[in-house]
Specification:
31% helix; nine-stranded mixed sheet; 24% strand; alpha+beta; 12 helices
């Protein structure tokens, strides 16, 4: 994919450089090179603004047996929709950006800005290896960049475009509880030992209440309060809670009010339990007391919260709850990965220009939104370059990103290409 994209960009006159970013060593000892990162440059007029466009060429795994109606790696068109893995995340938006450049050239109109291109192929694995490259290119490739545009993600619904100005960060945890050096027969040892699984489920259930509020001591202390008028932003967003609940098949949502639900999913931290290792999960009966089990959970963090702070609060809280339980098991809390939250001023000139392009193409204002997910590349680019970053979504909310039958509507793809062209034009008009 990197080589194909590089060849296509060169045909458009883009100066392309493929940068090696290292290797990954697997537990087996096998060493595999990361795919190279594509850096591209088109134009170097000092009178023009310079935009860096980011996208990723890798996709999630997919097999037809997963429940796809078509072969996931063969594009299929049906009822005005283009089905295939990566159609919405992120090959479709990447192609829309490229074809916006092609459109200017096809009608012999000079590009209104200089363009830098940053395309990687490890985003679905957390952008492994990219931070070192961005750091090394800070004073060269990124030196003249004015703004960074990321084309990734999707709208909330099907009708209103979205402009993302904030994402939550994420801290991944492993909580291990051990009661014996080996698994034990419950008929022989049941009632004679403190059981790891019982302690683990007790500790995991102590992390939140039934309404999803985190019970970790002081976890909300650093969350910034709502500023004046902020509640209205969420009230005015085009989002129907009943449609959302029906689409995902939820028994009941944690909040019924639209603004409260969006605030809870974007503006405040949340905790999700993902699974348990070491327990019997296969079909049938197995009378075993696991000697060691590990619970996996994550906390989505917001601005002003740091992974270091959250790690200490979680560790202190779980240690205290374990001591209160008075069990003779052993516990270990580890934070295995983390990413910082990201937030921009939605009233920045870069965002105002993007909103103009949105209204010109879609005939309506886009919703300025936060999102509950995490993109490590955004915080990496922000931390190292300091540039203003915008994340624009081109696909609809029902495009099944990461799921079966991923698609992008042809209308969204065509409008997205037009939007990218309008975006480049409007950004060129920002006064310095």
């Amino acid at each position: 994919m990197v080589n194909w994209t590089a060849g296509h960009l060169r045909k458009l006159g883009v100066e392309v450089c493929l940068k090696e970013i290292g290797t990954q060593v697997f537990p087996s000892g096998n060493e595999v090179k990361f795919p190279p990162v594509l850096l591209g440059t088109l134009g170097n007029d000092p009178k023009k603004k310079t935009i860096c466009i980011y996208g990723h060429l890798d996709v999630q795994p997919a097999l037809k047996d997963d429940g796809w109606n078509t072969e996931p790696f063969e594009m299929a068109e049906c009822d005005g929709r283009l089905y295939g893995r990566g159609a919405a995340d992120d090959k479709g938006p990447v192609l829309a950006c490229i074809q916006a450049i092609e459109a200017f050239q096809a009608v012999h109109v000079e590009l209104p800005v200089n363009i830098k291109i940053l395309f990687e192929a490890m985003e679905e694995c957390g952008s492994l290896g990219l931070e070192g490259l961005v750091t090394s290119e800070k004073d060269s490739f990124f030196k003249d960049v004015d703004y960074i545009c990321i084309c990734d993600g999707s709208w909330l619904g099907k009708d209103t475009p979205c402009i993302v100005y904030g994402l939550r960060g994420c801290c991944f945890f492993r909580l291990t509880v051990e009661c014996a050096s080996q698994d034990l027969h419950s008929g022989v040892h049941g009632g004679m030992v403190h059981e790891a699984m019982a302690d683990l489920t007790y500790l995991l259930s102590s992390l939140t209440d039934k309404d999803g509020r985190l019970l970790i001591t002081d976890i909300y202390n650093s969350v910034p309060p709502l500023h004046a008028g902020e509640q209205d932003i969420y009230t005015n967003i085009d989002f129907d809670t009943s449609v959302y609940g029906n689409d995902i098949g939820a028994v009941k949502l944690l909040r019924q009010d639209k603004a409260d639900l969006l605030l809870n999913g974007w503006r405040y931290p949340s905790l999700s339990i993902h699974g348990i290792e070491g327990a019997h999960g296969e079909f049938g009966l197995k009378c075993v007391i696991p000697g060691k089990v590990t619970g996996k959970f994550s906390i989505r963090i917001v601005e002003n919260q740091s992974p270091e702070e959250v790690k200490k609060l979680v560790t202190d809280y779980l240690t205290k709850k374990w001591q209160e339980r008075g069990s003779a098991t052993r516990i270990m809390v580890t934070m295995t990965a983390s990413a910082l939250p990201w937030h921009e001023d939605p009233h920045h000139p870069h965002y105002l220009a993007t909103q103009k392009a949105t209204k010109y193409i879609y005939k309506k204002d886009g919703d300025l939104i936060r999102a509950g997910g995490t993109m490590p590349i955004i915080t990496t680019l922000k931390k190292i370059t300091g540039k203003n970053i915008i994340n624009v979504a081109l696909s609809a909310g029902d495009d099944n990103i990461h799921a079966q039958n991923e698609k992008i509507d042809k209308n969204n793809y065509i409008s997205g290409t037009k939007f990218m062209a309008a975006y480049l034009y409007e950004v060129s008009r920002i006064e310095k």
